[in-house]
Structure formats: C-alpha cells, structure tokens
Amino acid sequence: MAKKDLNAKTSNRERVSAQPRLHQNAAEIQAYGTVTHALPLDLEEPVRLEMTEQLNLLLADTMTLRDLYKKSHWQVAGPTFYQLHLLFDKHYEEQSELVDTIAERIQLLGGISIAMAADVAETTRIQRPPKGREEVPVQISRLLDAHQVIIGHCRELAERADDLGDAGTNDLVVSDVLRGNELQVWFLSEHLVNEPLVEADAPNLRRIG
Asked: Is residue 56 part of a domain?
C-alpha cells in the first residue's frame, strides 16, 4: 500500500471516534431576520421577509399565551377549580400545536423562527402577568386580553398576506390561528357570565337585558 493511502486511512480513523466532541461552537449558518434565497415557492424575497417578520410577532404572542394558560392551569383556585384546571390545560395544548404550526411556516418560507424565552419576552405585545396567583376572573380577563391581541393581528396579517399573494400564510392564519383563538375566547367568556352557582334566582325577580 502506498504511503499516501496509508496516511489517508490513518487520518480517517483519527476523525472517526466514539468520544463525544463537546463544547463546539461556530458562526451561525443563517442570521435571524433573513430568508434563504433559493426556495422554489413562487414568492418574492421581500414578501417572504415581511411574512416571516409578521409571523414571528404572531409566534411570540402565541408562545406567551400558551405559557399564560399553563400558569393559569397551575394556579387556578376556587369552586370552579376542576373545570378550569382541565380547560386551561386543554387550551395550553391547542396553543402548543399552533406554536409549531406558525414556526414551521416561518421556516418553510426560508426564515428563522423565534424560539428562546428571553427573545419571546422582548418581542411579545401581551402584557406580562405577576408571578403570584390571581383571582379566577382576573386570570380569565388576562387570557381574553391576550387573545384579543392575537385575533387583531390575525385579521391584519391575513389581509396583508392575501394582498401579497401568500395564500399559504393567509390560510394558516385564518384556518388555524384565528379560528382556534376565537373558539377559545368563546369558552373563556362564558365563565365570566354572572350566573348563580348553586341556587337559581326567583323568576319574577330576574332582569333580562
């Protein structure tokens, strides 16, 4: 065997090892706020840049709402504890699915999806809650306010995506995010109706309207 070939095989053996290569670091392969150029999506780069920027805002708000549901799930108290404990966790799971859906759309468009908690906290438009436990009506009102931020943005983003010819983003925003949030708003809002819990009002004393 030639000495050159022997040296090449020795070099290959040195590169292949069962030893984990820890503490690696390198430059980013794509900067946040950019899109890749070669994706055959029939969408111009300026469109994809604008859509990924707007979708990242929506993603940050959705991640914040998701975590707000988990906080409410853990900290809820009172006579409706069981029902709301389950409802808040159900909504948390649904928002988690929306987080993945939005993030994957950003990546599909060639962008970079926001991911880390610190970056989300800097980006979200949803008001930060206190660390402590709040009363149920305040928890629900806070969740509804967060939904309102997302729903308002969805309507604007869906219209803008339609204007730019990005049918995929328009469909995602309307079919998944907007409709999902609207349904959750309905479930939450009904818990703020001031109805008696145990004893019904006398019919002749009740006022309607």
From this structure: yes
Helix (H) or strand (E) holding 153: helix 136-164
What pTM did the predictor assign? 0.87
Is the separation of the CB atoms in 72 and 139 below 8 Å? yes
Q: What is the pLDDT of residues 130-148, one digit of tens each?
A: 999 999 999 999 999 999 9
How far lies 118's CA from each of 31, 74, 122, 204, 205, in Å? 17, 22, 6, 56, 53
Q: Is residue 205 part of a domain?
A: no
Query: In total, how many domains does the chain have?
Result: 1
Q: And the tokens for 104?
A: 């994957």
- At 153, list the tokens: 């943005």
- The first and second tokens of residue 77, run together, are 């108290």
Report the CATH number at residue 52.
1.20.1260.10
